[in-house]
Amino acid sequence: MSNIQQENGELWESLLQLAEEEEDRVHEAFRSIDRTAERNQWKVIEAFKRHKVSDYHFAGSTGYGYNDRGREVLDMVYADVFGAEAALVRPHFASGTHTISCALFGLLRPGDELLYITGKPYDTLHKVIGKPGDGKGSLQDWGVGYNEVALLPDGGLDWAGIEAALTERTKVIGIQRSRGYDWRSSFTVQQIGDMIHRVKSLKPDVQVFVDNCYGEFTELTEPTQVGADLIAGSLIKNPGGGLAETGGYVAGTQKAVEAASYRLTAPGIGGEVGAMLGTMRSMYQGLFLSPHLVGQALKGSVFAAAMFERLGFESKPHWREPRTDLIQAVRFGQADHLIAFVQGIQEAAAVDAHVVPEPWDMPGYENPVIMAAGTFIQGGSLELSADAPIRDPYIAYMQGGLTYAHAKYGVLIALTNLVKKGLVVIKPHIT
Ligand SMILES: *Cc1c(COP(=O)(O)O)cnc(C)c1O
């Protein structure tokens, strides 16, 4: 027994009892997650087989990295798994934001307009979009126009607004699959497919970009299989499988992927250059593990939703809702509850459990953010982590868990923390 379990003997027992009950209640949801993980695992293995992945592909190149076969095959395996013409998977993408930035700068030219149809994009993209004349080389600073159509109060798309916002200049449509830091539903791949179909029937020459962060392998298909021209994601989220140490990917049409590649390196060079150093094995093996780990994390999210709902908090998605990303939002309503929760998640980590996170002004974010990130990969959020901007109504976004047992432990420790601070009351269980 650990210290935490010993110190809170009776409370811990009550929580375990609750957990058992909730696990029984959600077992159908767990089964469905397992089934998706299994199918996606097979899909990844089959792509590896088709491209004859071999030990020598893991070696990694130096210098220019010309003719790095491991890199070329990894791109093909990703393209195959995502049902896309092409992909670019690189450790040189410094983060998800950098990857998305390369994608957008690749697709857009001065005078064009980017239109986000799923409301305000993820916080870190606001500065990529920027303002005209901001002097930072943002999209708008370069003369790319920007517009966004807010979601309707029910979380749906405002099609009247979208039709009105489409102009001659609209060149790229932006769609964000995951809720990010918004209290809305994420969009399933089928919903994204419908959006793409509709927007392309309104304006056939637009290209559709999908921010796929946190979505990979939560469903059986990906947005590239329902008409997205380009998608992007981070390797320290789902597809890196907890092993990739850094990087991002784009996938889509040959032309769109090439456009992004010219932004990552240089026009004319694109994906032909770029030493992979020692990153190859972790990227391959991470992709191999990803479907299973995404399944573990999803079960953790469902468990968290069930537990917090049981204790009277509102969660999104509800445990019963189908999942299309890893993020579980829980609305705490008060800053102290939120902070106690995030600190509890940190306390449950295998790495850095002894540090106590505090809100800070993180670069790229507009409110102070508190983060629990006791992770092997810094900021890796397929690992159990929680983020929360300190703003009303004090919603925590938790995600990840390389094992279900860790995610479950995190929820139990966070609840212990809330109870000990007198913020949540749990009736002792009667044996
Ligand atoms: C994480 C995330 C990003 C940005 O990725 P970083 O790696 O944090 O830069 C963008 N969009 C969404 C939806 C995300 O979840």
Automatic annotation (TrEMBL):
InterPro entries in the cross-refs: Met_g_lyase_put (IPR009651), PyrdxlP-dep_Trfase (IPR015424), PyrdxlP-dep_Trfase_major (IPR015421)
Signal peptide segment: none
Coiled-coil ranges per UniProt: none
Protein name from the UniProt record: Methionine gamma-lyase family protein
